[in-house]
Amino acid sequence: MTSTIVVSEGLLKRYTAKIFEHAGLSADHAAVVADALVWADLRGVDSHGVSRVGFYLNFIQKGVINKAPNLRVTHDTVAVQIMDADASAGAVAMGQAVERAVEKARAVGLGLVLVRATTHTGALGYYTQQLAQQGMIGIAYSASIPMMAYHGTRVAGVSTAPLSIAAPGALNEPIVLDMASSIVSMGQLNQAKLLNKVLAEGLALDAKGNPTTDPQQAAIPLPFAGPKGSGLALMFELITSLLVMNPLVSEFFSGKPGGRKHQQNACIIAIDAFRFCPEETFRSEVARTVATLKNLPAREENGDILMPGERGHRTATDRRQNGIPLSAEVAQELADFGQAAGLQKPW
Amino acid sequence: MTSTIVVSEGLLKRYTAKIFEHAGLSADHAAVVADALVWADLRGVDSHGVSRVGFYLNFIQKGVINKAPNLRVTHDTVAVQIMDADASAGAVAMGQAVERAVEKARAVGLGLVLVRATTHTGALGYYTQQLAQQGMIGIAYSASIPMMAYHGTRVAGVSTAPLSIAAPGALNEPIVLDMASSIVSMGQLNQAKLLNKVLAEGLALDAKGNPTTDPQQAAIPLPFAGPKGSGLALMFELITSLLVMNPLVSEFFSGKPGGRKHQQNACIIAIDAFRFCPEETFRSEVARTVATLKNLPAREENGDILMPGERGHRTATDRRQNGIPLSAEVAQELADFGQAAGLQKPW
Which domain holds residue A322? Predict the structure, then answer.
């Protein structure tokens, strides 16, 4: 039996932030991390939401996430910045990267910020959506330690290489693509395990590297379109991790102490869209393109034709109004963390 | 029965260039277009090589490709340029875009050039590889008129959205990812048709929009990972075509005269890698990452573990030395074009 607890966005953010504050993050940083997690819950991406609080707390306790990071700019031009995140919580460094990328794009039309040695960056759509809301084309990608099979191998050799691209929408709501280069995410594999739902073929390998459809055996997600998905993941490693001189794949397999420590490198790109195309024109052309696709004959009768991020936006609209449903397990876990922090359960 | 004719790289380039010159391109432009096509042949991407000469000549005769384009810069900052290609042959505008992107990247670390209203850009790896050979991270993507199904629809609604990313390699040979967002390319569908080879499931729709594995019926390639592949294609339309104010998808379905005319918009990004990471470090870390992946246990015993572009590079090395094999059909076609141009067949 699973029941759900429904919590309002604001309350969940404040409660989550208080938990992180108690764990040692500054009030500012705690609020930023809570905001990023609850954004994912709002959009229905529960795998990247407050279900991760325990995972983050564990990192904070172990020092994997640095409670008081010293974010340093190591390279700076009018268009590019490299920022050493000093193992900050991902949302802290990425939030600053978004700000810097926008400043540069406002100045010269384009800004690129590379973030070195941060931790779990979460749902990248959170950042590109912020860029698009400021009139920018937003692009974000990141590299992490290996989780997905490299094509032709039987072990996790590359990250699942998330990529997000967002553009200002017809109205205020941007169009936000947010994808991984695996066919299904680790979160979806875990979900299938929980529900004991047989997987389609070609999605995952077991721990020994053999193809499996058994959700209990599935351990390693496979890249989409074979060499394409894992090639993309490798390129993200080369053009982020190697560029900021913090290789993750080769260190992971090096046998060195610390080589398998959780960390990520990431990149944020902002293009000042309305500098090149008048805002009104851009927005009306987005509307026209969307309408064109939605008017095409659907694959299945009355089937939905969705834009990137549309389902998430719908869910967010609903959850902003009606609250965010948390599974009993996640709610209990949060309540326990809250209690340990001397907080009263808010539901 | 098919036999092949083997031609040297240099000879094939010169002969192809002469054909384009006779069709009305300047000697410079003809050489550029021939170089791009023969590069694809060298790499074994025959679908983007001289087999396209007829397709290009047809475009030149119809005025779809402008023989004497007036390439104009419409926007320019230290980091960004928008260039109106005036329906130039793709390789002409893209070659200039590569040069400009490198100039900007040398100046401020990063350059982005948007190319408006060009024609078939060919294999994007040709351009990103040039960037990587100059010490740049190279990224290129393009948008064209619809060819691939948008997820959830039964018609071609978006382009196959090629994306290429290249990085300087351990030695001189860059690592070059060059992919489309369809599972298989139009070229591969045509190849299956020729060989009457049954397709795997989930690769294509027939002309009526129904899934098919019959190579003779397959008409519309499907995106990889459903909404991911077609979402990427839509985003490329928004962040290239709309940004340069030359929408392709909505115009295609608008019913307007000229709405279905062949054209493309594209983007080239250069990041000055060695400004941020010393060349020696970057190259040796690429070598270490590649060696790490190649040492992982292979999926199949003694199976190859390939890097992006590695097979193409091997083929190019072989073909540079031993010549480029052309099918009898392609050789005959070229000979016919050559004859019409008053050229002697070079084989």
Answer: 1-67+311-347
